[in-house]
Write a structure and sequence with these properties.
Rossmann fold, about 15% strand
């Protein structure tokens, strides 16, 4: 299916992971003909992604950005406009999950950093691209959230709070820009087969509980999320606005066992 994204300019954040949703989204948009700005705090893995996108004949701009710092996001958007000319699509995928502890054990500094990246950073990107999209009465903003922001998860207070806030922010912006030709939607991911489940941040018992809680009996794959995001970026999704679309294999049909893992946190 031709989604009509040829020569559109997209920003995708959080693309460094070689097995991540951000990478899959950037590739899906490039395969549909979009030029892509790649933003991440780490450059490890970004250049190989940039080369892959160049091989598709698309323009690409890799950028190192700490999105928890407003000035860095501002500078990045200026650079994107200079190099790629405009911004049509913004995919806010970048997030961190570094603190698997109970609320009583989480430090204020850890809380503030996660909220800064996962929630403040999304505001910064949206704040900077809305005027650009508004001038041409067309734009797509897609915020990657989590089922954790819908139902919570023990041991992830700052992550779940940030993702829940992101869902409310998505709806608020959608109400504000409804007649401007800009659509704003969220995609809430469940258990997706990315590196977070293998790099030791989450305890094995928690990972297994999350996996076993999926009614479809498997983890989702990054490309499955990417296909939905590419569609939401297209003209075919012009009447989808202010929505939260869940990709979780059915986990939120009931109470996830993963939110009730008995362990010391």
């Amino acid at each position: 299916m031709d989604l009509g994204l040829k020569n559109k300019v997209a920003i995708v954040t959080g693309v460094a992971s070689k097995k991540g949703v951000g990478r899959a989204i950037a590739l899906a948009l490039a395969q549909e003909g979009a030029d892509v700005a790649l933003a991440d705090i780490s450059f490890e893995g970004v250049e190989s992604l940039a080369e892959e996108i160049r091989s598709l004949g698309r323009r690409v701009l890799p950028l190192r950005v700490d999105q928890g710092v407003f000035a860095e996001v501002q500078k990045a958007v200026v650079g994107i406009l200079q190099e790629l000319g405009t911004v049509d699509i913004l995919v806010n995928n970048a997030a961190i999950t570094n603190n698997v502890v109970s609320t009583k054990k989480m430090t204020p500094a850890a809380w503030e950093r996660e909220i800064s990246v996962n929630l403040n950073g999304i505001f910064y990107w949206v704040h900077e691209v809305l005027p650009v999209m508004g001038r041409k009465n067309w734009g797509r903003i897609i915020n990657i959230s989590s089922t954790g922001g819908m139902v919570g998860a023990a041991g992830l207070p700052s992550y779940c709070a940030s993702k829940g806030g992101l869902l409310a922010f998505t709806k608020t912006v959608a109400l504000e820009v409804g007649k401007s030709g800009i659509t704003v939607n969220a995609v809430s991911l469940g258990v997706i087969n990315t590196e977070i489940y293998t790099r030791g941040v989450l305890e094995p018992a928690m990972v297994e509980a999350m996996r076993s809680s999926v009614p479809l009996g498997r983890m989702g794959e990054p490309w499955e999320a990417a296909q939905l995001v590419a569609f939401l970026a297209s003209e075919g999704a012009a009447y989808i606005h202010g929505a939260n679309i869940v990709i979780d294999g059915g986990v939120t049909l009931g109470i996830s066992k993963a939110t009730h893992v008995s362990r010391k946190i």
